What we know:
The structure holds 2 protein chains of 2 kinds. Chain A has helices spanning 2-7, 9-12, 15-49, 61-73, 78-108, 110-123, 132-139, 143-167, 171-179, 184-221, 227-236, 240-268, 270-277.
Amino acid sequence: xxxxxxxxxxxxxxxxxxxxxxxxxxxxxxxxxxxxxxxxxxxxxxxxxxxxxxxxxxxxxxxxxxxxxxxxxxxxxxxxxxxxxxxxxxxxxxxxxxxxxxxxxxxxxxxxxxxxxxxxxxxxxxxxxxxxxxxxxxxxxxxxxxxxxxxxxxxxxxxxxxxxxxxxxxxxxxxxxxxxxxxxxxxxxxxxxxxxxxxxxxxxxxxxxxxxxxxxxxxxxxxxxxxxxxxxxxxxxxxxxxxxxxxxxxxxxxxxxxxxxxxxxxxxxxxxxxxxxxxxxx
Amino acid sequence: xxxxxxxxxxxxxxxxxxxxxxxxxxxxxxxxxxxxxxxxxxxxxxxxxxxxxxxxxxxxxxxxxxxxxxxxxxxxxxxxxxxxxxxxxxxxxxxxxxxxxxxxxxxxxxxxxxxxxxxxxxxxxxxxxxxxxxxxxxxxxxxxxxxxxxxxxxxxxxxxxxxxxxxxxxxxxxxxxxxxxxxxxxxxxxxxxxxxxxxxxxxxxxxxxxxxxxxxxxxxxxxxxxxxxxxxxxxxxxxxxxxxxxxxxxxxxxxxxxxxxxxxxxxxxxxxxxxxxxx
Lengths: 282, 279
C-alpha cells in the first residue's frame, strides 16, 4: 500500500531534487526546534548556577534531573505515577464510554438532541477545575470525586466531536446502505461509525489532554496520592528540586500519552492518512 | 478487460415486471412553496429489458429513479416489482450512483466494498463471500485490485468497482443514475461495452437514466424521453438495434443515426431545451 502511494504521480514525478529539499527543510525545522529547547534549559541551568536568580527554590536543571532519577529509582515516585495513571485511565474511560454513545444518540435521534443539547451547551463553558469544590460537598474527598471530574472533562470534547462527526457523514453513504438493504444497526456499525471515527478520535485526543490536566489538578486539591499530590507536598516541604522533578515527570507523561495516542490514531484510521497522501481530494 | 467469454452463458431473464404507475413527486420548500418534480409517469419494464430514460439536465430524472429505487417515496402513484409494492427497503433492486467516488466507502478495501452489498443479508461463510466477491471483481477485470482501497484507483476503475458491488448483490433490477457521466469519453465507451456484457450474462432488468442520447440508444431496448420539469413521459421509442451491439459499428449504423437524429430533434425542439442541453 505504501508502495502504491509512493508510485502516485504527484510524488513519483518529483524525483530526487524535491525529496532532498524536503529532507533538508525537515532537518532544519527539527534542529531549530530542539535547539530552542536546549537553549532554554541552558538558560535555566546558568541562571541558577551563576546566581543570576538567587533563590534556594531555583535549583539548576541538572539538579532537578538528578533528583528525578533518584526519586524514580528509589521507588518513591513509581507508585505515585501508577496511581495517577490508573486514576486517569478510569476517569477517561468512564468519560468516553458515556461520551461516544451519547454523541451518537444526540446526532442521530432528534428527541434526544432537543432534550440534551441545551444542557450541554450550558455546562460546556464551565472551567472544569471550578466544579471540584462543589463536587467535594457532594462526593467527599475520595476517588469518586476525582474520577467524576476527569470523566466530566473528558465528556465534552468527545460528545461534541462525535456529534460533528456523525453530522458530517456523507448523505450518500446512507443511500448506499439503504440500496443494499442493510439494517439500521449494520449501517450504524459499518458505515456511520467508521465515517465519523476520525472526528471521534480527534475528540478523544483533545479529551486526553484535558483529562491529564484535571487528574493532576484534582490530586493537587484533594490528594492522598498521585503525582499532583506529590507536587504540592514537595512545595509545602520546600523541596524545590523534587517539586520541579514532579513537573518534569508530568510533562513527560503528558507528552508520551499524546504521542502514543497519535500513533494509535494513525493505525486505527490509516486510510485517511493514506488517502490524503494519494492526493484524493474528495 | 475482455469479458467476451460471458456471452456464452445467457440465462433466461430473471425476476418480475417493474411497473411504475402514475408516479408524481412534489417537493415542499422550506418557505412553504412547493415544486412539482414529476408529473404522472407511467412505465412498464419487462424482466430482462434494458430501458433508458433520457431528459434534459434538471428535469427530475434522478428523482424519478430514486423513487423507483425506494430511496425516496412518491407523492402519488406506486412502484411495483411483480405483485409487490416497492416501499422503503428496495428488495431486489440496486441503485448505481452517479458519484462513484463518493458511493464507495473509503475505509473499506475494494473487496470489502463489494462484499458489503450482500454479506449482511445473506448468511454465508467468509470464504464463500470472498469467492462471490472475486467472481464479480473478475467480471469487471479488477480481481488484482481486490485489496486496494477505492481511492487508489482511477475514476473508471472506481466505477467498475461500483458496478461489481451493485451486481454482487444479484439484483433483479439495476437502476443506473448517469453512472458513466463523470468518466472520460473512451472509458465511457469501455464501460458501455462492459455493462452490456454483464447484462447479457446476468439478465437483470436495467433502467438507465442519462442525458446522453447516444448512450441511451446504444445500450437500451427502449428509450423513454422525459419532458422538462415537471417530468412526464413525452415519448417511448423502440431502438430495434441488433444485439450484440458493437462499440463502433453499432454507433455508425444508419438506424442508430436515424434514432439519434429523431431523439435529439425531439429534445432540442422544446422551448428552452437547447439552452439546457448545450451544457
